[in-house]
Amino acid sequence: MANETWLDQLNPLKITDDAKVKEAFVNVVWKIHKKSADEALMIYEKESLYFKKALAGSDKLVKCTKISLYSAFTEIAIQGISIQPGQKSEAYLESRGVNIGTRQAPQYIDTCMLRITAYGELNMRITSGQIVRMKNPIVLYEGDYFQPLTNNRGELYVDYKPSIPRKSQKIYGSWVCIELPGNSLDFKWLLEDDIKRLKGYSARQSSVNALYTADNGQIDPGFLEAKTIKHAMRAYTKLRVSDVAAFEGEEEQENDHPEPFGDKQPDVPQPKNTVRIDIKPDEPF
Fold first, then answer.
1. What is the reported pLDDT for 270?
2. Tell me: the pLDDT tens digits for 192-207?
3. Pairing between strand 91-99 and 145-150?
């Protein structure tokens, strides 16, 4: 092929082993995130391993264009996050179909995208200095007392009293405390109506995410915590990523539910025909 590049010559399962790809990744980590050469190399080795395992486990990913695979891998370095699997993974790879033809004569190719989870976005916001830290979300059960209030200076705070021992396993919401620069605090929450709204939106997209009913018919607590983190970060300045990356869950951010503090950020167009790739967390790192 006349337009074939050096990337097109590479085996997708070994693309991260290429000297040019390795050098580009290590240099980005070193220059942007100020890591030592040894630290940057260690990060490369780990992410390369996770990347190859993701491709080896997916027929769709391995068929993605070489340039999209290279770009997604480099984006990991640029954003300073990891695709290490786990309950609080920061990002993962997915394939999407992109039409390079016309509407009348479509021609689809598979491209790779880096999907950033709520935990990855949180770490990016901490790194950027938007927030200092976010405390672990607290799931609210029937019998717990939760009431947002303001003091005489108009500052928001939360009066929370958990019911101990717990009187019920029925979940009615979740809330989180965010520490901001300047020693100020912010609070965000999701209650039953919010959960129903998100569940309904999920159903309109395709089918309801099973995690909305995974805990004996109600929302899974861990899933609710992740949703609460995502919801909390809507109030802050939108983070910039390349076109090979996108934030998870932004398709559920509707315009009819404004935040109590801060403006809702515009939604990012979401790719079609994507698939999440799960990797077994058996690495020694």
1. 45
2. 999 999 888 887 776 7
3. unpaired
